[in-house]
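Course assignment 3, question 2. Fill in each field.
Student: A.L.
Task: Predict the tertiary structure for the chain below.
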Amino acid sequence: MILEDVPRQAAGDRAEVVEGVVTPVSRSWAHESAAEVVRRQLTPKLEVLGLVSGSGNLDLPDSENWYVPDLAVVPADLAMKTEGALIPDQTLLIVEVSSPSNAETDRVVKRRRYGQYGAPLYLLVDRQNRECTVFSEPTRLGYAAADGPHPFGTPVRLPAPFDLELDTAGL
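Answer field:
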């Protein structure tokens, strides 16, 4: 997928391609707030580990997919030298926060695709079901392991390299 293939709605708008369908990325304040709850808890670990977080583009080569995750964690040196998109296996963690318009995509399609493309960890913050799940052990079919779903308010453990217990009460 070439980013130029994705039509622009207006200056500054972003879009992703999910299974060949161009989807505008427009997040509510509640959505952004949930992502920020996770980001704030990750930040101290990121600094120690030499990692950065952001919502940069992820390409899934040889597929009809181009994703804009709510949050991805990558090595700082890789982020500094990458002008274009990264591939999911270059991340250490991908976080998606569901919204009414994309909940099934995050639960099913992105979970499968991130695993197929080697993202080591995928955290799904499911706002509609008020629960979090950590997927790990990527395979060519998706993820082999899931920790959760955990109801909001229950601590969620992120494994190495993070070794962090996320407080989900504020989600």
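Instructor remarks: The chain has one domain: 27-166. The mean pLDDT is 89.
Grade: pending
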